[in-house]
Amino acid sequence: MLKLKQVLQGVGRPQSALAESLKLSGAAVAQLLNHSQWPRSLDIADLQGRIRMFLTESGANDADIANAFEEVDLPCSNTADPALKEEPSGEDEPMLLPKQTLLPPTRKAFGMFRDPFDELSCAQDMWTSPDIRYVREAMYQTAKHGGFLAIEGESGAGKSTLRRDLVNRLVEKKDLVIIIEPYVLASEDNDTKGKSLKSTHIAEAMMAAVSPLTKPKNSPEARFAQLHKVLKESHAAGYRHCLVIEEAHSLPIPTLKHLKRILELEVGFTKLVSIIMIGQPELSVKLSERNADVREVVQRCERITLPPIEGARLEEFLKFRFDRAGKALGEVMDATGIQAIATRLSQPARRGGRDETVSLLYPLAIGNLVIAAMNLAANLGAPIVTADIVKGV
């Protein structure tokens, strides 16, 4: 087996975390760790580089990282070395539920005709905390006045909602800002797993948004010169330009480096394009200060992480959501139920030799758990969601 398996155990990271970071199946990672079998479809050097970045972010020391790909003998069956024991099966048990729907009997039991966690229909449906208000304002100021911003957050943390809010806010205020959003469907960080988003694709999206009637030049050099020209003309007409890239964690490293060159398009002292990247926590790995390939990008990019909804904010969030649906929270869930939601979506973990709590208290996960608990309460005939109901989900 590879020494990498012992390194992961030493920093307290499960194999599933490595698999998620590499976007590989758990079986592929198990074959790699236990039998030194590298995926045939991937470039080994590139994969090793991504593993080193993961280990660095997890707190592994330089010596362990350097020796991670050495092969070591498997221990005998009677070896009692605790460092080589398999990880507890419970550590990787899924804590998140799939999409939940408020069932008709539940709607009738609680007297609700609207799912409080449905997609937002207007800006007034958007719950904000001090953290969210800060991110919201940072995105708006970047779009309006320029800058380079990266928004990182777990799946379901509200990143797409903030993007939609930005576009809606610019329209409502009638700001002369052109939002440019390249299509990222099936985008991956290398061409082996899917289609990577390249700087030429971004340039085409910018041309289409800023000057849709202009026919792009054939050669890349002429096309970028043409783009610079139309951006200058648009700026002279009073417009600002903001490039918004969702799923930015799937950007290949070369494209990340090229974003710096797009940011440098200017007229005089005025930058012609501002950039907002939105992605999952894997984006922070690519934007690590230790990653020499993107150091010029890291030095220019402000990074903000969307935190989970914890403490008293959880009850605030639930009250707001149910109020928007025309129902008082106290008529649906008691205090023990709220506390059980917080407990269910938090778990202890050990990373880098330190004990910590991993929180999954994000809007999507909270909504799915609450709806599942309401469905269960209605099925059992319980008038309200309590801790026991939540634990039974």
Task: Give a verbal description of the structure.
This protein has 17 helices and 9 strands. By secondary structure, it is α/β, with parallel strands linked by helices. It folds into 3 domains: about 5-75, 434 Repressor (Amino-terminal Domain) (Orthogonal Bundle); about 105-120 and about 310-390, Helicase, Ruva Protein, domain 3, CATH 1.10.8; about 130-305, P-loop containing nucleotide triphosphate hydrolases (Rossmann fold), CATH 3.40.50. The strands form 3 sheets. A 5-stranded parallel sheet has the order 2-3-6-1-7, sandwiched between helices. The protein has a two-stranded antiparallel sheet with strand order 4-5. The protein has a two-stranded antiparallel ribbon with strand order 8-9. Strand 4 and strand 5 (about 270) form a beta hairpin.
